[in-house]
Amino acid sequence: MYPMELYSFCDVTWLFFVHISMEYLFTFWACFMLYKEYDRVASMRLNFLASQGRRAEQFTVLIRNVPHVSGRSVSDSVETFFQKNHPDHYLCHQAVYNANKFAKLVRKRNRLQNWLDYNQLKFERHPHKRPTRKLTMERQQILKDPKSVMSAAFVSFNSRWGAAVCAQTQQSKNPTLWLTNWAPEPRDVYWKNLAIPFVSLSIRKLVISLSVFALVFFYMIPIAFVQSLANLEGLERVAPFLRPLIEWKFVKSFLQGFLPGLALKIFLYILPAILMVMSKIEGHVALSVLERRTAAKYYYFMLVNVFLGSIVAGTAFQQLHAFLHQSATQIPRNIGVSIPMKATFFITYIMVDGWAGIAGEILRLKPLVIFHLKNMFIVKTERDLEKAMNPGGVDFPETLPCLQLYFLLGIVYMVVTPILLPFILVFFALAYFVYRHQVINVYDQQYESAAAFWPHVHGRIIASLLISQLLLMGLLSTKEAANSTPLLVVLPVLTLSFHKYCKNRFEPAFRKYPLEEAMSKDTQDRASESDIDLKAYLADAYLHPIFHSFEEVELVEVRVDKNQAHVASPSPSELSSPSPQYTYHHEDEPSHTVQHYEVEQPHTVYHYEVESPSNVYGYDSEPHYQYYHY
């Protein structure tokens, strides 16, 4: 080798070693920060659980796949089993009712009630069409029919220690029976999926996994087509009559810079809703789990379609065919070659989707438009207005995957094309301040997961590190420093070892509740609150909210004319329903009570006298109404 060529070769090799050294530096820095953050989040979770007051989910375990015993109800089987196997700590249980049909009727009743409120002086309904009677019949049928009781129950214990032992141990010799898990908090329960038979859950998960795989690759077809529009030569070949228009400077800049990112945003707009439906079909019983599973699906979708789909040329099936027929070692090589060439596209995508998305989040343009549309076409009553103005919670299924995608872009391009990093840093700085403001001042908290999302976030950041390392190896293998790529082989091994250590060290705090913590909290409660009736506190905590919120309403015939109007009013005496297992007696009160209510409507005042037997308050007692018009 000539001296000049040798000098040039050594100079290029030195530059490649700089890239490799920076990859090591960034990896070690990321792992160090991940370790500190995992330790901090795990400590915050345990401190939060220790500082909480008495909550129903701390004492309650969800039991599924209760075995059927001939001649016994599910409730009897649960009580017998836990009195026998947990005699010192079993307190009570709440059977799970299949109330899905009843919930549909209640939603229908609420819609009709809105129309009734809106058309109060014009609306007319005949007695044989009264939805309240159907509601009452369906409710009684659910409570009295043994078939409506599912093979599941919420079992409560008299101590956190007892609940922790039950939730984290195997209850039967047959591991498929008496399956136990911590109960979600009552706000977090997705009641509809509790009615799904346990046997069908595995089949559902398999079908949904195959459906998500197919959706990912079929969805790449329209995205790849729109991405090809950015290639002006291909567009001119397909539509030569557009050549004069394409040659305009403004049109060319729009097609090459703005259109691809905008097209991706449009195609991904409805995707989270589709993936949420798929997660619900899978059968998860907690809203937090549904959002975590939807976020996982959306992240995989973004990884394949936005990241890999934007880098690899060709349609989805061409990419799949190439991946299946080429050597596995060639995949990182082929993708690595394309990464530097797509840096400009991702800079545009970050500005169009990231920066503009954060600006839209602080302005809340999307909720503002949706609110005005609802206010124009849907809102009829004050109840509708309250629903339309509800800000909801943070949209985790869409927000988390987007943040993780931008972190992946930063990790991949920090060594290959560092010019991308300032755009990533600006995005994360804006996201921090905006979402911090929104969480504190705008959104309503839907449930409390106690940082249960963090292990999934940690795992995807580790996956981003591995992807960046493999793609850098593929890129260097195409250059003159191919012999230096073995130096990068150590990095994936070290990264996986670090992930395994963190999983063993910190993840149990997110999956289990230490018995030491449970016993300490129980001891504190016994010392400070010895007179609390825990059984009464837990009796109806996990009763289906339909039974809690349902009001006994008789919709009587509504006649509207110039002189009089007869309307029905919900009974305020039953704002919440007791558990179906209990009937309350008050024998020391008079045999009847008469309650007076006045409801003001425009130009009309209605006076109601509600007469109901006061010695028994249950589901069979119905108040009588007398109506007076003033």
From TrEMBL:
Residues 569-580 have a biased composition (Low complexity). The keyword Transport applies. It holds the Pfam family PHM7_cyt. Residues 58-135 form the CSC1/OSCA1-like cytosolic domain. The keyword Ion transport applies. This is CSC1-like protein. The lineage of its organism: Eukaryota, Viridiplantae, Streptophyta, Embryophyta, Tracheophyta. InterPro entries: Csc1-like (IPR045122), CSC1/OSCA1-like_7TM (IPR003864), CSC1/OSCA1-like_cyt (IPR027815). Residues 204-476 form the CSC1/OSCA1-like 7TM region domain. The chain crosses the membrane at residues 12-35, 206-230, 250-277, 298-317, 405-435. Keywords: Calcium, Ion channel, Ion transport, Membrane, Transmembrane, Transmembrane helix, Transport. Residues 566-590 are annotated as: Disordered.
